[in-house]
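Thread: zinc ion complex, take 2
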Amino acid sequence: MVQAGSVVGFGVFGLAVVAERVEAGELVVEVESPGGQAVFCAGCGVRARSKGRRPVVLRDAGAAGSVPVRVLWDKRVWACPDSECEAKTWTEQSGLAGPRRVLTWRAGEWAAGRLGDVEGSVASLARRLGVGWQTLWAAISPIAQQAVGDPGRVAFGARVGFDETVMSSAARRRRRRFVSAAVDAGTGQIMDVFDGRDAADLEQWAHQQPDGQMAAVEVVCLDPHEGYRKAVRRLKAEGVLGSNVRAAADPSPHRASG
Ligand SMILES: [Zn+2]
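Output below.
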């Protein structure tokens, strides 16, 4: 159920909510910076003159990411009255979103967290936020890489990656056959190769591993493919993988398989 008032926290970005409504299952929030404040030119320090507004549309994460949220930010545009000044005109900025971004920072962080908790794929999270796959990936990949990027942070064999490869291509009366490789993402060495690329295939492989091996895994690097995600989630629930295992998405994902 979409409810007005469920998105808060614009104040810390210097923005105030001026209107809220529900539109086609989406919460639409109009925000702006408070008026009546003196703004000065960063180039020469002269008091700036208003040049009107430039509306910007952002996608935000609702409370716990529950609702798609569209933020309409009526950005103020300023001009330096000194014609000699280099600054000319500029648009106000805020920590809510970077310049020319579609997603708010916190929406990117929310999605990176969900991906890390194996609670969503890039494709499913992008759908929930109402953005394209590439847009979301651009927002979360720096966050995800920062979280798991330091190879010294985890022990040998603690980072395991899975990726699928076409073993034999489709022909008449034969479907494409896939194999999956399990890779030690710390060393880059292939640990094993198993048939298939579905959740059941990965789970079967995990159950066949020597005692303690899966429990030692701290990070799984996944091709953002639903089959792997489902398997990792269930293996966590079963206790085969530790409950604190984090997922890192493969930095060279296949768009079609999410
Ligand atoms: Zn100036």
